[in-house]
TrEMBL record:
The keyword Transcription regulation appears for this protein: no
Lineage start: Eukaryota, Metazoa, Chordata, Craniata, Vertebrata
Entry similarity comment: Belongs to the class I-like SAM-binding methyltransferase superfamily. Cation-dependent O-methyltransferase family.
Keyword Methyltransferase: yes
EC number assigned by the record: 2.1.1.6
GO biological process, one term: dopamine metabolic process
Record's keyword terms, sorted: Catecholamine metabolism, Methyltransferase, Neurotransmitter degradation, S-adenosyl-L-methionine, Signal, Transferase
Coiled-coil ranges from the UniProt annotation: none
Pfam families, per the entry: Methyltransf_3 (PF01596)
Name by which UniProt lists this protein: catechol O-methyltransferase
Listed GO MF terms: catechol O-methyltransferase activity
Amino acid sequence: LVSRYHRRLIRFYHQRFLSWLRTRLTGISREERAFRYVLMNSTHGKAESVLSTLDEWCCKFECVTNTGPEKGQILSSVVQRLTPVSVLQLGTCCGYSAICITRLLIPGAKLYTLEQDPQTADVAEEMMLVAGLKHTQFQVITGSAPEAIPRFKPLLGVETFDFVFLSRGQGADHLRDLRLLENERLLCKGSVILANSVTHPGAAAFLHSVRSDPRYLTSFYPCSAPYEKDIPDGMEELAIL
Ligand SMILES: C[S@@+](CC[C@H](N)C(=O)[O-])C[C@H]1O[C@@H](n2cnc3c(N)ncnc32)[C@H](O)[C@@H]1O
């Protein structure tokens, strides 16, 4: 087991344990640490510069995204293909993938991105503003998915989403979130959902469920984990037929 999973274990040690220790010792969250680096080292107003500075931070210090450049490219190509008007992201973190999406939106389109931790949501909002994105193009919502999703229609005035990026967990949450979005009628024919990190063990039930459901057309994008060429990862796209 150790030889099979040692890379994941090392990654866990760096990303979780050391990060947790730094936060305990300094009182500064890992998202805030990444934001301070971006403030000092990026060209303000340029989304590409904020993304590449975040990549630099994640490579050199600690990873604050489950997307990164390779998956960011997949996400970007889906957004460019769909030209969605109403977009939802579940799980904002420090705003990496939110910036990836928002910088490509057509005029009049908007990203709604949900983050459960209020401090992290504030950092993401600041990060997106530093990237030159405007409040007319995005809204960071604070709340936990199971409670927030049923409030989206009255809160946001959105009937359905054209594109949804499921990115708050590593699989098990994807199915719950998908079912909730369906129950609340926030998806319609033609809506596209992209689920992040679907190779984690918890995502097996999600993949099985969507791939065997005739209501969806699914495609799998193999890739590697952010900044880890040797760790396989993947994203699943579902189009509602
Ligand atoms: C892995 S990060 C997302 C990173 C993001 N995709 C990116 O690359 O920039 C997951 C985020 O989801 C948030 N989250 C976890 N559970 C949530 C929930 N139930 N509702 C809303 N956000 C949640 C976490 O606080 C965390 O910031």
